[in-house]
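Today's session is about reading a structure prediction critically. Students often jump straight to the picture, but the first step is always the sequence itself: look for stretches that repeat, for charged clusters, for runs of hydrophobic residues. Only then move on to the predicted structure, which in these notes is written as discrete structure tokens rather than atom positions. Here is the chain we will use throughout the hour.
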Amino acid sequence: INTPTIIAPSLIDEGQPTITITVGSTTTKSSLCTLTRRQSSTSARRIPVARSYAGRVWEKTAGLFARSGSGLLVDCSGSSGGSECDLTLPSLGEDQEYVLESFSYEVSPEVEAARFLEQATFGPTRESINTLLSTSNNFASWIHTQMYSTPPSYHREFLRRNTHPKFEYPYLTAAVGPRPCEQYSRWRRYAITSRDLMDDRKSLRQKHLVVETVEGITGFLWMVDGTFRTVTQDHPTFVDGTLVQLNVRYRIDEVKRSFLVNCIGCHLSLIDGNGVEYTIANPPVSIEGVEGNEGLLPYATVALPSFGSSDFPAVEKASEEFPLFT
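Below is the predicted structure for this chain, in token form.
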């Protein structure tokens, strides 16, 4: 039978419940043959019956005719390699007919490579397409290389590396992420963080800020519960212009939208021992004059590359994506 062909009830011998036709299977990967049942008067209400595609033998198409007892039989055992198949079709009802059609398409090797990579990866790139084209689109070889020669790349690892949050107590939360000075490690310029506006997890109490001076160090030290945060050369003042009293414990007031303090100059609230509330601007981080003082800064200090430096692209990347946290 050639295509397209319409098999109408008139072609079926009267009284015969079925009709058997012999059809050839497709021979190329760019060809498709389909058999459908439709309404004769309108050519609508198509129901798939069987198909042969990409050089494969005929098979039942998923749906109504793939069910057990549908009356459809597909037999490709009579010819060598299934080049021809016998299809036994159920009888037709009123205003019904079978339609046998064939289709073919051609795509460029570049499109074929891109389509394969869309299915096998998170998405094709120009480089990956060209690499596959250099092998004449040898998909089997590409899959073998991916399985046995290419180091794995994990989506979860990429997500953690690029979106991991800041942790004040990583040893309590089993936090993961880059170590200090490694690529993708995260840094901040502001001294007081949103975590300072929350209860201390170890003591279950709110934190306190003390501004003090230390002999041998020029400037005013900002200490949060005894931990050095920054040093300012000018005496700190509140937003209303009054001076911050030295060696006085100010309770850092907890607020619901605590992340709004995560920038230089952002306002945070302090409460003294008499319950008076003050507002102060978040200062930048500075260790000027404190380097080498193990009592205040028991860490090794390093100089980061300048902003935008190719030696540390994560600095610029983080600043562009999270401008609030710079």
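Discussion point for the tutorial: The chain has six helices and 14 strands.
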